[in-house]
Amino acid sequence: MSDSYEFLFKFLVIGSAGAGKSCILHQFIESKFKQDSNHTIGVEFGSKVVNVGGKAVKLQIWDTAGQERSLSLSLSLSLSLSLSLSLSLSLSLSLSLWETYNALTNWLTDARTLASPNIVIVLVGNKKDLEAEREVTFMEASRFAQENLMFLETSALTGENVEETFLKCARSILTKIESGELDPERMGSGIQYGDALRRMHRQEKLQPQASKPDCAC
Ligand code: GDP
Ligand code: MG
C-alpha cells in the first residue's frame, strides 16, 4: 500500500520487560520475527499504513523500554517527543511469565491516570506459541480485561493475531471518530489527518464562500 493515508493514529506499546513488545512491533511492521531482540533503550517507533474499513490509516507505533516498573519514565520520554498519550495503548503481557500478568494492575492504573478517558486499550497476551510453558490462562487474562479492555492472545513468533491487534484498535478509534466521540481536531487527540483529508477539509472551509447562492434581491 502506498504511503498516502486519511488518518494517522498514534499507539504506545507498554508492559513489563520480556513480554515481547519489541517483537510484536517488529512482526507487525516487517512481517517477521525479530531474532536478535535486545533490550529496548528509551523509545523506538515504527509505522505502517493499513486498510481499516476501506480507509487508509497510518499507524504510528511507539515501543517503550519495559525495565521500569511504571509508566512514568515511558511517559516522560513520550512527552519529550511530543507524543500524545491519548489515543491507543497496547498493554502487553507474556502468557509464559506470571510476573508480567501480576504487573498489569500497576500499568493499567498508571495508564488510566495519565491518559485521556477516550483512550483505546488492548490487552495483549503474547507468546501464545509457548503453550507448554503457559503460566497465565485465557480465562485469567480475559477476567482482567473484563468489559473495559479488548483482549487478544498473540504470538510475535508465528505472527498469529499481531496485525489483528492493531487493526482492532484502529477500528475502534475509527468508530469513535465516526460517532463524534473522538474529535480529530482537538489538540492532543493523537489523531492527524493525512494529506487527502487535509485537502478536503481545506476545500470545505473555502466552499461556503465560493458556492454562495446568487442573490435574487
Ligand atoms: P520486550 O522487553 O517486551 O520488548 O520483549 P522482547 O520483544 O525483547 O522479547 C523478549 C523475549 O521474548 C525475546 O527473547 C524474544 O525472542 C521472546 N519473544 C517475544 N515474543 C515471543 C513470542 O511470541 N513467542 C516466543 N516463543 N518468544 C517470544
Ligand atoms: Mg523491548
TrEMBL record:
PROSITE patterns in the record? RAB, RAS
NCBIfam families, A to Z: small_GTP (TIGR00231)
Name of the featured protein: Ras-related protein Rab-4B
The portions of this protein that span the membrane are none
Q: What is the lineage of its organism?
A: Eukaryota, Metazoa, Spiralia, Lophotrochozoa, Mollusca
* Gene Ontology molecular function: GTP binding; GTPase activity
Q: Which family does it belong to?
A: Belongs to the small GTPase superfamily. Rab family.
Instruction: Give the source's domain of life in one word.
Output: Eukaryota
